[in-house]
Amino acid sequence: MEDDEDIPALIEHTPASPRRTSARVPLTIICGFLGAGKSTLLKRILTERHGYRIAVIMNEFGDTADIESKTVNVSSPDDPTAEQSEEILELANGCLCCSIKDSGVAAIEKLMQRKGAFDHILLETTGLADPGPIASMFWQNEEFATGLGRDISLDGVICVVDAVFGKQQMEEDHSEDGIGESLRQIAGSDVIILNKVDLVDAEKLEDTEDLIHGINPAAPIHRTTRGNVDLSLIMGISAFTSPPQLQPAHLGHHHAHAHDHDHCTDADHTHTHTPDPTHYELRGISSLQVTCPILDQTRFDRLDEWIRTVLWENRIPESGSGTLQVLRCKGLVTRDSGEQYVLQGVRSIYDLAKLEGREDISVPQLGKIVLIGKGLDENKSLEQFCLWTCASPDIAGGTAK
Ligand SMILES: Nc1nc2c(ncn2[C@@H]2O[C@H](COP(=O)(O)OP(=O)(O)OP(=O)(O)O)[C@@H](O)[C@H]2O)c(=O)[nH]1
């Protein structure tokens, strides 16, 4: 652990009176490619009269932290929202996802100790950050759970995508292993904010949404100008503990999709997408969505084993060498007892947790699982999934595209 000298400085702002005394503080990670509008979204959140006491952690790469904190700082004397001013912590020593984990966590710990509880924590990452390792720091991390994790729970990962350059970025973004930063950010997020819709036409918006949806079919897409979004769609979403909002799994043959967007008269609106493809390749990242049958104990155990093998050994059970790379997985699984389980995974870390209070559903629902990553189709994932969890593929009823 670094000593206090190495811990990024805490910028003091007028504190609001604490309202929170127990319960863990939800943390939202805001990621998105360079210039997509992360700070703009942050400012939009801070200036809304929501009444929450928010701690902001800004992880800047390079020497822009002072500029950013000024941009986002809403506590200037001229600002009528000053009374809602927040705690802003700069992590400017490098990128939290790759180089300053220890000092970053220490600084956040210190913030919690000094300032007590907040209602919410917002963490803005650098434009090139991969949200996966950062999410892992705050979720399912034993070391963390005995320290800072006692006070913080990961609420969700929000990705801001630039409506002007996002499509181009996704198409160009093809790093050596075929998974560039913008694709990782979209793949690793729970909600997508498609920002700057004031600058593009409807056709470009739809094209960009199609690409986003192809990478991450599980994440709802909300169109915004200057991050203007209903905060209930991005904060307090409990993405890591509640069932994912999966699109319906499509059965049978798939065809090239064309959306009917005639209903879309206003580009700046909340927009949850339900296009046809459930498995779509883009620059090396694809997604696979399958329907999961109601499972007895044996098949439930087999599903767990299947997930472990896929995530930890990067391969499909009973197949050869590992060529898979799963960046994100989500799912909802129903047991024959009526219990439902939520699957949440970020890279190699996953959790299959019982959904409390759902045992009494009269008609058990089929489950669904979404994998996002690389090499899914090459490994005939679907057939293997069916083989391991079901009597036959017919029962599983899933399909890939
Ligand atoms: N026209 C328009 N401009 C926007 C919108 N959102 C943000 N901008 C502008 O886009 C530029 C970048 O926005 P920021 O919020 O700083 O982007 P960022 O993602 O925080 O940038 P980095 O931290 O450098 O990655 C700024 O000039 C914003 O004013 C929008 O919806 N419409």
UniProtKB/TrEMBL annotation:
Q: Which GO terms describe its molecular function?
A: GTP binding; hydrolase activity
Per UniProt, residues of the CobW/HypB/UreG nucleotide-binding domain are 26-222
- Enumerate the Pfam families for this protein: cobW, CobW_C
Q: What catalytic activity is recorded?
A: GTP + H2O = GDP + phosphate + H(+)
Q: Which CDD domains match?
A: CobW-like
Cite the CobW C-terminal domain residue spans from the record.
Answer: 302-384
What start and end residues bound the annotated signal peptide?
none
Give the CC-aspect GO terms. cytoplasm
Presence of the UniProt keyword GTP-binding in the record: yes
* UniProtKB keywords: Chaperone, GTP-binding, Hydrolase, Nucleotide-binding, Zinc
What family does the Swiss-Prot or TrEMBL record give for this protein?
Answer: Belongs to the SIMIBI class G3E GTPase family. ZNG1 subfamily.
Write the protein's name.
COBW domain-containing protein 1
User: Which organism is the protein's source?
Assistant: Hypsizygus marmoreus (White beech mushroom)
Phylogenetic classification of the source organism: Eukaryota, Fungi, Dikarya, Basidiomycota, Agaricomycotina
